[in-house]
Design a protein that fits this description.
By secondary structure, this protein is an alpha+beta fold. Helices cover 40% and strands 25% of the residues. The chain has 3 domains: 281 residues, BirA Bifunctional Protein, domain 2 (2-Layer Sandwich); 104 residues, no CATH class; 103 residues, Anticodon-binding domain (Rossmann fold), CATH 3.40.50.800. α7 packs antiparallel against α8. It starts with a helix and ends with a helix. Bound molecules: adenosine-5'-triphosphate.
Length: 512
């Protein structure tokens, strides 16, 4: 996918009422977006699909909805006050701010693409005689770049591991990385920047207390875990799931809804016996990838990326990466969080929050396996992989959003062929009977072809057309979004037809 495709995605999502820039009339607020009339339906369906597969399908997972604010000590205990930082660097000429680690990552990607360029050049020159493997192993130019990449990657990963900001800056200087805007190497020092938003509680400045907007929903689960365990009488292993807003003052946020300052997460913390984390880590890696695949998006869009630099709380971690229009990037994180959070909350609160294990007959602090996915990134993943434009029979082009049908904003559109002869009334009457069961829409403006295109563009799986024959024999035509094939069926079989292919519950029961 390309940057052209990415631009199309952004404009399509605005033109067809999925996503608007927040506060657009005031020229927008950077990295903050609003979900519009179609976007909110799609987003809610994604959340429902996640919630049902986590909470309804697992006997041992329950859900909560904790507050966005929590006692400020929460964030001291969780390590976010001290360690939730990104390394930032400013270019003195353009006054633009960057993440130092991103500048280095982009540099390494550029070196890789130089190898590819060299390869393409030689391929063209030698044609069929070209042997890629030998070329990569022996070409002096390639070997030199490869050695440089290895050297820089090693220095980079050591610098990250040791939080060595001076070394990060040295890498930027040694690699002669320039600012993409000013083209100069006039950099400031690298500084740590805490990503949490602060606000205050209390009526007057002097009596107020500093609060943080939560940068992840997970801590609300940790603070409540014992209350939930006791009141729901859960036994280890068990999980707590939550969907909610999170806030991060991201240094650079230029990738539409991929990196936002206000976003939504779907997180699940799974409480387990210490020592069993490796098995559960494997289990949740597989379960979560299977969940993504169950929506029907092609396997080639996903890959795992194991973390080398572990967050302050983890003993193993990986990402499920998705092939976004700008390349493979993190969609979901799976983290083995040890007992870091619970132990620290016990220490900072001075309250016992140990679990009593009736089988082992002893108390311990559980270990935690976390799965954490951004709703907005999931939205971008399904949206970007579904938007296609294709040539059709009459050599015209149609733009169609081939969303997984069960999460489409509208499941079907009712379209009377003509705006007269009782056809609109008939279409509305059929819609009326189905409107609470399925999300449906109605359209009687313009020629039928244009109405089909409009529904294609918002991903409606079926268009139901009511024509004169309907009045005679109670049949309607059902047009399939992807194949554009039309089928005539009896009105009374429509509900069954839709149930079979579109109902989230049926889909989940069938295992996706
Ligand atoms: P990244 O490395 O891309 O900044 P992260 O490793 O900081 O992400 P986590 O802390 O693991 O992300 O958060 C879990 C999930 O929350 C991510 O996989 C992502 O889907 C989502 N997420 C995190 N930050 C943002 C953001 N700024 N905007 C949108 N979604 C986000």
């Amino acid at each position: 996918m390309s940057s052209e495709h990415f631009k199309k995605i952004i404009s399509h999502s605005k033109e067809y009422g999925f996503i608007f820039q927040s506060s657009e009339i005031y020229d927008g607020l950077s990295a903050v977006y609003d979900y519009a009339q179609n976007g909110v339906l799609l987003k809610n369906n994604l959340k429902e699909y996640w919630w049902k597969s986590m909470v309804h399908l697992h006997e041992n997972i329950v859900g909560i909805d904790s507050s966005i604010f929590s006692h400020p000590t929460t964030w001291k205990a969780s390590g976010h006050i001290d360690a939730f930082n990104d390394p930032l660097i400013d270019n003195k000429d353009s006054k633009k701010r960057y993440r130092a680690d991103n500048l280095i990552e982009d540099y390494i990607t550029k070196c890789e693409s130089n190898i590819l360029k060299e390869q393409k050049k030689q391929e063209k020159r030698f044609g069929e005689k070209f042997n890629k493997e030998t070329f990569l192993k022996t070409n002096p130019k390639v070997l030199k770049i490869r050695e440089h990449i290895n050297q820089i990657s090693l220095r980079f990963s050591n610098a990250l591991k040791n939080d060595d900001l001076i070394e990060l800056e040295k890498i930027i200087v040694d690699c002669e990385i320039v600012c993409p805007i000013s083209g100069t190497k006039n950099w400031t020092d690298v500084k740590q920047f805490n990503l949490m938003f602060k606000t205050q509680l209390g009526a007057t400045e002097s009596s107020s207390k500093v609060l943080f907007l939560r940068p992840e929903t997970a801590q609300g689960i940790f603070l409540n875990y014992l209350n939930v365990q006791k009141t729901a009488r859960m036994k280890i292993p068990f999980g707590i799931a939550q969907i909610g807003k999170a806030f991060r003052n991201e240094i650079v946020a230029r990738q539409f809804i991929f990196r936002m300052r206000e976003f939504e997460q779907m997180e699940m913390q799974f409480f387990i016996k210490p020592g069993t984390q490796k098995d559960w880590y494997k289990y949740w890696k597989k379960t979560r990838l299977d969940w993504h695949l169950s929506l029907g998006i092609d396997k080639s869009f996903f890959r795992f990326h194991d973390h080398e630099k572990l967050a302050h709380y983890a003993d193993a971690a990986c990402d499920i990466e998705f092939n976004f229009p700008f390349g493979f990037k993190e969609l979901e994180g799976i983290h083995s969080r040890t007992d870091f959070d619970l132990s620290n909350h016990e220490k900072y609160s001075n309250k016992q929050i140990k679990y009593f294990d009736p089988i082992e007959n002893k108390k311990y602090i559980p270990y935690v396996l976390e799965t954490s996915i951004g709703v907005d990134r999931m939205f971008l993943a399904v949206f970007s992989s579904s938007l296609v434009s294709e040539k059709i029979d009459d050599n015209s082009e149609r733009v169609v959003l081939k969303l997984p049908k069960i999460i489409a904003p509208y499941k079907c559109a009712f379209l009377p062929l003509l705006k007269k002869d009782g056809l609109p009334e008939m279409a509305k009457e059929i819609k009326e009977k189905l409107k609470l069961k399925f999300s449906t829409t109605y359209d009687d403006k313009d020629a039928i072809g244009r109405r089909y295109r409009r529904q294609d563009a918002i991903g409606t799986p079926y268009c139901i057309t009511v024509d004169h024959q309907t009045l005679d024999d109670n049949t309607i035509t059902v047009r399939d979004r992807d194949s554009m094939r039309q089928e005539r069926i009896k009105i009374e079989t429509l509900e069954h037809f839709l149930n079979n292919s579109l109902d989230i519950n049926n889909w989940l029961l069938k295992g996706g």
